[in-house]
Amino acid sequence: MKDDIATSFPAERRSQQRIIVNQYHSVELLIKELVYIYRLKIWNISSKGMCVLIKEDSVLLNHLKPGEILDMKYYSDDASHSHEVLKTKISHVEKDERRFKGHYMIGLSILGKQNAGIQHITIERRAEHRTIVDQYYSVQLSINGLEFDYQFKIWDISSQGMCILIKKDSNLLNHLNIGAVMDMKYSPVEVSNPPKVLKTKIMHITKDSKGRFKEYYMVGLLILTT
Q: Which of 20, 142, 148, 164 has the fewest CB atoms within 10 Å, i.e. is most exposed?
């Protein structure tokens, strides 16, 4: 992978980046071509500013290029302002040969920042009559007996309605049954709206044997309450 690395950041820029690291603890990336949403811890371990760490064998690396500008979702510990979407430039992609061997450091530079504050990015509103897929971009599942919560991008690729994609060898499939009703947490597209927990019915679990996602099962979801 070719690196496009800036030689240095001005002292003022580094100071601003440290403020950002103190303000946010993690950042979420949504890549249209990928199944999963990636949420990564923000680090301040590089002389070039804040960064995230990605494993060298991650498919995500193939979709991140120096100079590219993406909308990324930043998470804060402040309950009154838990997250916001900010336009972010990938400043460098650099392999770490020291403390974090086996990882790449992806440098992030938030654009539109003024002084020590963050300029909010306005999200264009969709049409008044929106579908569920338009309203929410991801859903989180919590299963008793499993150590982790699972967060998935919501897809509209099935003739049977919205669904999520789960790898065919995932242990999660053993805990999902057709007809089961669960409380699922939906994250809205508009960051000004808080996540909502909605009762959701599992409509079908179908293997995508011929389509684009051959290694995955499509799990159909139907929201029962709004």
A: 148
